[in-house]
Amino acid sequence: MKLIERAITRAVRMVPMKFVQSRLTRSVVSFTFDDFPKSAWTVGGDILARYGALATYYTAGMFCGRTVDGIEYYDRSDLLGVHAAGHEVGDHTFSHDHGRKVDSEHLITDIARNTAFIQEILGDVVPTSFAYPYGEASFRTKRLCAGHFACCRGTEFGLNRKLIDLSQLRIVSLENRMHHTGTVAKSIEVASLIPSWIIFLTHDIAENASIWGSKPEMLDTALSRVREAGLEILTVKDALTRACFGFSSPQN
After folding, report:
1. In which band, very low, low, confident or very high, does the pLDDT at 6 lie, cut at 50, 70 and 90?
2. How far apart are CA 178 and CA 109, in angstroms?
3. Taking Cα atoms as reference points, which of 85, 61, 74, 93 lies closest to residue 204?
4. Sequence-distant (≥ 6) Cβ neighbours of residue 1 within 8 angstroms
5. Which of 109, 172, 190, 214 has its Cβ near the most Cβ atoms within 10 Å?
6. Percent of the chain beyond pLDDT 90?
7. CB of 47 within 8 A of CB of 219?
8. Is the pLDDT of residue 7 over 70?
9. Domain spans of the chain?
């Protein structure tokens, strides 16, 4: 069964549903936090600020004000703080269900519910980028979500360059379970030579971070290496604009 699932995952990854020829002339980097654990803001936000960097926080409404599996998640004031600081608030569905396991009507309704939740707190904010819960995408969900959002991010490893699949953007993991300093360094090295879009992925930021999160020094090291390489750090929304049109959003 696992072999079949892996084969399907590879097939889905190989079939772009929404692609664009990259117009990047120099590399850009985005830092993303899924689910929005509180420490991604209270700890990660401080680290980002030291580097003058903005990130994308993929927000799932169900986590607001909750502690799940020992991880404390954001509350309304955290969401307001992230937005006020200029970070991007992305969509991660409200219920954080496995997208491949729910029908299309449920998925569409759940996305709309999450947008309404975000707008109830932040006002006229419409998320333009999406991250698949658990990184799970299928031909059906890629087509559906790519039609609803400007871009969708998965959890498949790789740099986004040349022909970019906006229905399943690739990532470089900063998570404890997959993190390897050599992979991070190599990705930055490649991006220093070939115009690319690196999207770093993690969750909580703490000394005792979960397997899906990062220790503070891991995030700090990645930011430091990116700055040393002279690469620009942009939110997913602004990096997307740069990749598609060659410039950033006018508000930034």
Report:
1. low
2. 32
3. 74
4. none
5. 214
6. 82
7. yes
8. no
9. 2-245
Q: Residues 6 or more apart from 119 whose CB is under 8 A from it?
A: 125, 126
Kind of pairing between the strands at 71-72 and 67-68: antiparallel
Residue matched to tokens 């900063």: 174
Kindly tell me the burial class for residue 12, based on how many C-beta atoms sit within 10 Å of its own C-beta (0-12, 13-18, 19 or more). buried
pLDDT tens string 188-214: 999 999 999 999 999 999 999 999 999
CATH level 3 topology of 2-245: TIM Barrel (3.20.20)
Contact partners, residue 38, CB within 8 Å, separation at least 6: 72, 73, 74, 75, 78, 204
Tell me what pLDDT residue 252 has. 42
Angstrom distances, CA of residue 173 to CA of 108, 113, 250: 28, 28, 29
The DSSP H or E segment spanning 147 is helix 139-148
CB 79 within 8 A of CB 95: no
